[in-house]
Design a protein that fits this description.
Layout (H helix, E strand, L loop, with lengths): L4 E2 L10 E2 L6 H9 L4 H8 L5 H14 L2 E8 L2 E8 L9
Antiparallel strand pairs: 1-2, 3-4
Length: 93
Amino acid sequence: MNDRIVVNPKVLGGKPCVKGTRIPVYMVLELVEAGISFNDIRTKFYPQLSEEDFKACIILVFAKLNCHKLVSFRGNTLFALMWLTAPLIKEER
């Protein structure tokens, strides 16, 4: 993991969480997927998340997908550009 995301088998069944919280990474990512801005995630759902915590959740996904990453945060919007290093889905013929 990284210094902001931890896995503890005694917390939420070992799911990756933001350090010092019981906030699972997948919940943060589901909110991002739903199009909710970082500011809204912080004010309406998880006020204890810092911008660095939020970035760590996003970066974890890139690491798990084995991607090179360029991630920047501008205002309320996440801009991400990924180059996959290997195909994730193989087409059957």
